[in-house]
Amino acid sequence: xxxxxxxxMSAYLRKMAIDGYAVKLDLPELRKLTSKxxxxxxxxxxxxxxxxxxxxxxxxxxxxx
Length: 65
Prior knowledge:
Blueprint: H1 9-19, H2 28-54, H3 59-64
């Protein structure tokens, strides 16, 4: 677990029981992309909440979000 840098014992044991090995990938570009996708998703959720609450979507709302 220490070599893989994981703190989740359950996930580690499950992976080892199923596959017998675990691989640690260091992909900084994938981490950056995931971070950007999370931010976009959060913005989309804010828009959806605003539309569902008022039933309308205004340009001012989009600019605020």
